[in-house]
Structure formats: structure tokens, C-alpha cells
Amino acid sequence: MNIEHHLDAATLVAYAAGTLDEAFNVVVASHLDWCPACAEEARRAALLGGELIGKLAATPVSDECRSRTLGMLDTATLHRFPKAPSSGGELPEALEYLLKGKSLAELSWKRKAPGLALYDLPLSEASSGKLFLMRIAPGTAMPEHGHGGEEITLILSGAYNDRFGRYARGDVADLDESIEHQPIVEKDSACICLVATEAPTRFKSWPARLLQPLIGI
Prior knowledge:
Blueprint: H1 9-17, H2 22-34, H3 36-55, H4 63-71, H5 93-99, E1 110-113, E2 116-120, E3 130-136, E4 145-147, E5 151-157, E6 159-162, E7 165-168, E8 172-175, E9 180-181, E10 184-185, E11 191-197, E12 201-203, H6 206-215
Antiparallel strand pairs: 1-2, 2-3, 3-11, 4-9, 4-12, 5-8, 5-11, 6-7, 6-10
Helix pairs in contact: 1-3, 2-3
């Protein structure tokens, strides 16, 4: 696997600190499972954070503060994923856990538009993001669009091209609201992606905006 597109440094620091929303945490963990370079950067960020905390002077806290902090553990967003039945390397471990060992071919995909199908992934009530799989047919050009907030997309199979280059298996698009692009899937196979978003897509054309409530992204 030749990975050309990696996670932003700020995303890796947030992952190491445990401050990412659950949806984004799943995508980042999935990419790290395939990308030794980003996994090493995340490890370094965690070590640096530990060193900084270790140098802080101890400060007494009230019983109320201690109780409130311990209570927040139930909604913490640093998720660790138990082993799931293996897909034989087809999928990252974090995604395998959510799919309970099912392969991509076994999923009940929902057709949302010509050439586009989605599969929503379960999240806890504490998550404010959205997590889903997206399957785009060979040769399909997605409508030109921007993003209402942060969005991270991991390519699981196939490939697409946009103004930032070619994205294939293992590559990740770590985008924010300043980015506009138009992914075009290559013609030899469908492109399947794992996507985390915090806000709806901002489509530029009025037909795409009209259909957006039906598409659900």
C-alpha cells in the first residue's frame, strides 16, 4: 500500500490527546492501522503530551472538581476498539469492529442518487459527528462542493482524483470548511470511502442542493 495523503498534524495531536469526536476518532484510528508514518507521528504526539503533563506542578483540586472529572469518563471520546472477526486485511480493525466482521459486499447499502450509495455506521449518543461508508460508481463525478466543517475521508478501495491529486486505498483527505473540490472516481472500479463529518456538505449547484435532504450528506 503506497499512501501519499496523510492526516494533518493538528488532527494527530487531537487524536493523541483524546479530544476528537467519536466519528473522527474511528476514521483516524482506521488510517493509523494502515499508515506507519501517521501512526509514528501519533505516538510521538502522545509521548510529548505525557512529558508536558509530567512537568506540570501538582495543584490540589476540590472534591467537586474531582467528582465531575471522573463522571466525564463515561462520555470520553478516546475510543479503543476490541478485536473483531478479521476480514483478512480488507478493512482496518476499528472499522471491522463496527461492522462486526461483515465485509463491504455484505452490507445493506442504501442508494441515494445515481452512482452513489451510503451505509450509516452506529455511534454513541455522546457523538456530535456523523460516520458513514460511501460507495461511488466507476467514472462518477461528484458535484463540486465545499464543507460546512471538518471532514475526514479514508479511501478503502478504488480511487478518485481532484485538484489535490489522486486518492487511493489508504489515502486520507483531511479537509475543513476552506476547501472546495470535485472528486472524480476512476473508471476501472467503484470507490469506497469511510467518512466522518461534523456538518453537512455545501454543494455549489442548485440541483445538488435540492437533492441534499434526500442524499443525507
